[in-house]
Amino acid sequence: MALEPERIPPPKKHSKRARHPLVIAGNAIFMILVVISVTVGAGLYFGKQRFEAPGPLVEDKVVNIPRGLGIKDIADLLVREGVIDQPYVFMGGVIALKARGDLKSGEYQFNKRASVADVVDTIIENKVVQHTLTIAEGLTSEQIVAKLLETDALSGQIKEIPREGTLLPETYKFTRGMSREQLIQRMQQAHKRVLSEVWERRMPDIPIKTPEQLVTLASIVEKETGKPDERTRVAAVFINRLKAKMRLQSDPTIIYGLTGGKGSLGRPIMKSEIEQPTPYNTYVIEGLPPGPIANPGRASLEAAANPARTKELYFVADGTGGHVFSENYAEHQKNVAKLRAIEQGAAPPPTVTPAPTPSGPTIVEPPATTPPANGRRNNNRR
Fold it and tell me: pTM for this structure?
């Protein structure tokens, strides 16, 4: 019996549907989409790694981004400054974050090894460098204006010198490019706010009628002492003198009347200048001068508004940087003698001796009807 070969079934025929051109095209599109998805995913993965990888900066660096730069210009600037080394990663990151409109001009500090992500975040969050400017208590408005003009990070000119006593000495923060006029406005607003607060809390029985008079008295206190614990006692001496109708006789007022707010004389006050009438010379005029002689800080304003409860009418240097206070002229003269002994022990007293005060030097003044509050007519120093 002969063996018959095994019959193999014929191959299945593809259905007409599988061979349809639309199906073939759909499969091709699907495969393309898969490839694209894999490619994009891989690109995003590696792009994210490069976006977050440490950058090339070897140390912190400040970079100023000018106004009007586009995304590519900013990327090129950062490359030139060594902040980044992959400009297209920077641009891609900004576009992916939809932050093209958030790129802001300004002065930025980028930290050592900052990633592109860190750089982008710093710029779009506008984390600009904050500059500080400290205005010392007791400067005149003209001196403050000179300080602003010397500060390169500020811009613009100053139209006119602000009225004396209207600027609050303080530490101010600002960004590069802020105008000097803007900063002056901030100082004036700060002064108004502080003066209003202090005026509301003043002692009701002080012989000061207006906030402006308070600023004037505070400016004299500011120039007479730099020791925080003495301000209220110095203020009390002048308040007591005002109540007793005594002349204030403060050397800083002589100097302001002579210089017009330009600063110290740079030499001792001359005998003739002590007697020289000016609107500000409290050795000549009665009561307060017509306006402040400097810009006082908050502490001096508070001292003038709330002076110590004393009967003291005089103060004189103690030889160590502070002052001693007294209620009567006899006691004051004893304190003066002690100071002279200290000065003579250090060196023979010259005919004219400068006083190392914030307001400038002075000399011995001849006797007058009313002894001075600060005793400097008797060669007294702080």
Answer: 0.77
pLDDT tens per residue, range 22-48: 656 666 666 666 656 555 555 454 556
Handedness of CA 135, 140, 141, 147 (dihedral sign): negative
Q: How many CB atoms lie within 10 A of CB 34?
A: 10
Model confidence pLDDT, tens digit, residues 323-348: 999 999 999 999 999 988 888 875 44
Count Cα atoms within 13 angstroms, Cβ side, for 242: 20
Residue 276 CA to residue 257 CA, distance in Å, equals 9
How far apart CA 175 and CA 109 sit, in angstroms, is 12
CB atoms within 10 A of CB 207: 15
Residue 312 CB contacts under 8 Å (≥ 6 apart), including other chains: 233, 236, 237, 240, 325, 326, 327
- Give, in order, the Cα–Cα distances in Å from 283 to each of 260, 272, 326, 372: 17, 12, 19, 8
pLDDT for residue 24: 65
